[in-house]
Specification:
By secondary structure, the chain is α+β, with helices and mostly antiparallel strands. Helix content is 50%, strand content 8%. Strand 1 (59-64) and strand 2 (67-72) form a beta hairpin.
């Protein structure tokens, strides 16, 4: 038996060497079957991959289980790769294909993805959540400002140091609920509390570096089966909730009026589209989950990091507050104030850089064999845009571990984005919610700093926890009222 095992290992190693010889990018060796997975730090896989990029260069390859993976750690390489149609696939992970079934927007590919990306972009323009629809932002701005005002008032009622997670989650979640579902819930509503819990825990349960993604058979092992049951149970229960919300909104869809939320827009599309096979209710449920979940989680996480860095960097916080006070003169911020508050805007960008919410990016997959930077990339390869490596590269950013918003200001002290800054990724599958996220982050940041001085309550933990996103650990900070 031992000889058979040794022979199998040698055979796999031989095949691995042969594969390497066919003009593939350089990269580290891994173990048979497991590949490089055992050597990834489960608490910081982005840091392991970044260390490898410093050794092997801006493009390298490795096996994660049976999935051959290309890692890109250069902004130009990522932009070039993700502009190709052949790289618009989704990585062959269990989360993408086994649990989500290729539905929605995040996990879809091919015609399903193209049709629904176009649909999503259309309704974001309709609701005023893109640059091309600035004139139509009044109603959306009113929703955001209402939730900001409510959140600031609730925080102001707190007398002791608090973790603002619950307040921020309710406020940003309410914005997304209004946009997606056409309704909001009260803070203590059981349905809303459950929906928030399911969303929060789901992002922690499985990440792109989790072994379950590469070895689906692990779902039969108790440790992993518990995770799968939680994800599937959460999916089925949220879909049931979505069915109820859809029925409630169905009667509000008027043929001669513009839809007021995503549910109404989808129902309208079902009745008018010629691509009916792509507008099924399974796709409907997954699309609602993607827009709500992605919009809430990434924006909430960025704002939490923003407040922690304000607490950890009181001098910078004071400079931003001085700008806010000088421009706003004690009035609420408006959408027109974004270019007038360049340091405030720059502080948001610096937060997105120094704590990339998705540090390994959203992996793509090759739909066919491609040539990239002179290397042959086989069909079905997972391609990782390593945001952490790009955003923390000392050859691009001076002292990248330091929080310095002024790196996003040009000589005229206006906000400027270098091409190496890609928090919303880039290319054909770039996040379409960028403008909405910036609007929310700007209104919350400016309003909170206008009302409070944010102070540390002990040491500020800036390490975080990795799941699908890099999330701050729960910790208390003080909000000292300025009024």
């Amino acid at each position: 038996m031992i000889y058979i095992l040794i022979f199998a290992i040698l055979l796999l190693l031989g095949m691995y060497r042969l594969l390497r010889s066919k003009n593939l990018p350089p990269g580290p060796w891994g173990l048979p079957v497991l590949g490089y997975l055992p050597f990834l730090d489960p608490k910081a896989p982005h840091e392991t991959l970044t260390t490898l990029s410093r050794k092997y260069g801006k493009i390298y390859g490795l096996h994660l289980g049976s999935v051959y993976t290309i890692v890109l750690s250069d902004a130009t390489a990522i932009s070039s790769a993700f502009s190709m149609d052949k790289l618009t696939g989704r990585a062959p992970l269990y989360l993408t294909h086994g649990i989500m079934g290729g539905y929605g927007l995040i996990c879809a590919e091919g015609s399903m993805w193209r049709i629904h990306r176009k649909f999503a972009a259309k309704f974001l323009r309709l609701f005023g959540a893109t640059k091309s629809a600035r004139a139509a932002t009044d109603s959306l701005t009113e929703v955001i400002i209402r939730e900001v005002h409510d959140c600031v008032n609730v925080i102001g009622d707190e007398c002791e140091p608090i973790d603002p997670l619950a307040h921020l989650q309710h406020a940003i979640g309410s914005v997304m609920c209004q946009l997606v579902f056409g309704k909001t819930w009260s803070r203590d509503d059981p349905t809303w509390l459950w929906l928030q819990h399911t969303q929060e825990e789901g992002t922690k349960a499985i990440g792109v570096a989790g072994p379950l993604n590469f070895f689906p058979f692990l779902r039969y092992i108790p440790r992993f089966s518990k995770v799968v049951r939680f994800l599937l149970d959460g999916k089925h229960k949220t879909h049931q909730l979505y069915r109820e919300l859809i029925e409630q909104e169905r009667k509000n869809v008027q043929a001669d009026e513009s839809p007021q939320n995503v549910i109404q827009a989808f129902l309208r599309e079902i009745n008018t589209t010629s691509d009916k096979e792509y507008f099924t209710f399974q796709q409907f449920y997954h699309l609602l989950a993607d827009i709500f979940g992605a919009g809430l989680d990434t924006t909430l996480t960025t704002l939490r990091w923003q407040l922690l860095y304000m607490a950890a960097c009181p001098k910078i916080q004071g400079e931003i507050r001085e700008e806010v006070d000088r421009v706003l003169q004690d009035r609420p911020p408006t959408i027109e104030d974004i270019p007038l508050l360049p340091l405030t805007r720059a502080s948001i960008a610096e937060t997105q850089r120094i704590r990339s919410v998705v540090p390994v990016g959203i992996p793509h997959a090759t739909l066919d064999e491609v040539n990239l930077l002179g290397y042959r990339i086989p069909k079905g390869t997972m391609v990782v845009p390593l945001q952490w490596a790009v955003h923390m590269d000392p050859t691009i950013w001076e002292k990248p571990d330091e929080f310095n918003p002024r790196r996003f200001l040009n000589e005229e002290q206006r906000f400027a984005k270098p091409k190496q800054f890609m928090p919303f990724q880039t290319g054909k599958r770039m996040c379409i919610g960028e403008d909405l996220a910036i609007m929310i982050l700007f209104f919350f940041t400016a309003s909170i700093l206008q009302r409070f001085e944010i102070c540390a309550s002990g040491d500020v933990d800036l390490v975080g926890e990795i799941g699908i996103t890099l999330t701050p650990r729960k910790q208390a900070i003080r909000f000292v009222s300025r009024r």
